[in-house]
Design brief:
alpha+beta, elongated, 2 domains, 405 residues, 17% strand, six-stranded mixed barrel
C-alpha cells in the first residue's frame, strides 16, 4: 500500500471518530502545556540566578566567617566569631590590590513591624562602603553615612520586599519602624536585587549601620563576612593566596589547623548558581516525564480500544491484500498524527500561559526555541511508542478471525 494511501486512510479514520481523537489528544495537550510552562519558568529562573552571579562581580571576593569543620553541620549551630573589624583594616592596609572592603554582620528572621503590619526579615549591619563595593545603591532616600556609624544611629534602609510587606505603595522614608524591640527611622529604600546565587531573596532585608547592629542590637564584636572588590580581575589569584596567608597569621592558626574563614571567588559562586539551576532541571524532567507518560498511557489505551472496535475493518483490509506492515503503519500514523497535533496545541497553550504568568506574577520566564522543538519531538515520540503495541496487535489478526466477530 502506498504511503499516501495509508496517510489518507489514517486521516479519514481520525475524522470519522472525532471524540476518540479528542480524548487521545487531551492528555498530550496537558503534558506539552506543562512542559512548555515549566521549561520557560526554569530557564527564566536560571537566567535570573546567572544575572545575580554577574552582579557579584568578576573582580570580587567574599570572605565568610567559618571554615574547615565550621563550614559543615556544626557551623549551622555555632556561628564563627573569629572574623573581626581588625581583619578588614589589615586586609585593606596590607594588600594593595583591594579597591574596597565592605564588612557586614547579620541577624536572621527578625520580627519587624509598622502600624500593625509585621514581617520577618534579615537585618544586616553595613558600612558606607557597602554601596560602592556591591554596586547596590538606594532607589530612594540615602544610604548609611560615616556620621551614622560614629553615632551608632538608629536608621535603616529597607529592601523592596520589606517595603512592600510593611508599607505597600506608601512612601516609608521618615517613618519609624520596630526592628525587634528597637525603633528605627527609615532613611532609604534599596534598589531591587532579586535572588541570590544560593536562592535567597536579597530584597527581604533591612540595612542598618554596622556599629548600631554590633553594639545596640546584637551586642557582638565579630563579623559574618566581608565583600572585597579588587582593582582588576588579573589580581584575583594572587590576592586570594595573600588574603588567606594574612588571615591565618592574624588568627594565629598553626600549619595543621583548618581555616576558620572561607574565601569565595566568582568561579565558586558560578558553581553554586549552577547547582541551584540544576534543581530546576531535575524538576523539569520529573514534571515533563510524568505528564507525557500519563498522556502516552491514555493514547495507548484508546488505541487498544480502537483495535477492538475496528476488527472487521482490519480483517477486510487484510482480506483484500493489505500487508502486516501496512496495518502497523496505519495505526502508528494515526497515533503520531494525534499526538503531534496535541503537541502543537499544547505548545500554543503553553506559550499563552507563559505570557499570562509573566503578566500576573514576577516569576521570570524565558521562551526559547528549545521548548518548541522538545514539545514536538516528545509528542511525536510518545505517539509512536504508545501506538506500537496496538499497531502490532492489529497487524497480528488473521482475516478469518477478524471478520468472524
Amino acid at each position: 500500500m502506498k504511503a499516501q494511501n495509508v496517510a489518507s486512510i489514517a486521516w479519514t479514520g481520525l475524522r470519522r471518530n472525532l471524540l476518540r481523537t479528542f480524548l487521545m489528544m487531551i492528555g498530550i495537550v496537558v503534558g506539552i502545556t506543562a512542559l512548555t510552562l515549566v521549561l520557560s519558568a526554569g530557564l527564566g529562573a536560571r537566567q535570573r540566578v546567572m544575572e545575580r552571579v554577574e552582579k557579584f562581580g568578576a573582580a570580587s571576593l567574599m570572605v565568610s566567617a567559618g571554615g574547615g569543620m565550621e563550614r559543615g553541620r556544626a557551623a549551622g549551630m555555632v556561628p564563627s566569631t573569629t572574623l573581626k573589624l581588625a581583619d578588614v583594616e589589615a586586609l585593606v592596609r596590607e594588600i594593595p590590590a583591594i579597591a574596597g572592603a565592605a564588612p557586614f554582620a547579620r541577624q536572621s528572621e527578625v520580627d519587624t513591624s509598622w502600624q500593625g503590619r509585621t514581617t520577618s526579615t534579615g537585618v544586616f549591619g553595613v558600612t558606607p562602603a557597602w554601596a560602592p563595593v556591591w554596586d547596590w545603591y538606594p532607589a530612594d532616600g540615602e544610604f548609611v553615612t560615616d556620621e551614622d556609624m560614629a553615632a551608632m544611629a538608629r536608621v535603616c534602609m529597607l529592601g523592596p520586599t520589606v517595603h512592600r510587606e510593611l508599607f505597600g505603595d506608601a512612601n516609608p522614608i521618615g517613618e519609624t519602624i520596630q526592628i525587634g524591640a528597637a525603633p528605627f527611622r527609615v532613611v532609604g529604600v534599596m534598589q531591587p536585587k532579586g535572588t541570590s546565587p544560593a536562592g535567597g531573596d536579597m530584597d527581604n532585608r533591612i540595612y542598618v549601620p554596622l556599629s548600631t547592629l554590633m553594639r545596640r542590637v546584637a551586642n557582638v564584636d565579630y563579623l559574618n563576612g566581608i565583600k572585597i572588590r579588587l582593582r582588576t580581575v588579573e589580581d584575583l589569584d594572587g590576592t586570594v593566596a595573600s588574603m588567606q596567608a594574612l588571615l591565618r597569621d592574624a588568627h594565629r592558626l598553626g600549619p595543621d589547623d583548618p581555616d576558620d574563614f572561607a574565601v569565595t571567588t566568582p568561579a565558586e559562586v558560578t558553581v553554586m548558581a549552577e547547582q541551584v539551576a540544576g534543581t530546576f532541571d531535575i524538576f523539569l524532567v520529573l514534571v515533563a516525564g510524568i505528564s507525557l507518560v500519563a498522556g502516552g498511557v491514555v493514547v495507548a489505551n484508546i488505541m487498544l480500544m480502537s483495535v477492538t472496535e475496528r476488527r472487521r475493518e482490519i480483517g477486510l483490509r487484510k482480506a483484500v491484500g493489505a500487508h502486516r506492515r501496512d496495518i502497523v503503519q496505519l495505526f502508528l500514523l494515526e497515533a503520531a498524527t494525534v499526538t503531534l497535533a496535541g503537541g502543537v496545541v499544547g505548545i500554543l497553550l503553553g506559550l499563552a500561559g507563559v505570557r499570562l504568568l509573566a503578566w500576573l506574577t514576577d516569576v521570570p520566564v524565558v521562551v526559547s526555541w528549545e521548548s518548541v522543538v522538545l514539545g514536538l519531538v516528545f509528542s511525536g515520540a510518545v505517539g509512536i511508542l504508545a501506538g506500537l503495541h496496538p499497531a502490532r496487535r492489529a497487524a497480528a489478526m488473521t482475516p478469518i478471525d477478524a471478520l468472524r466477530t
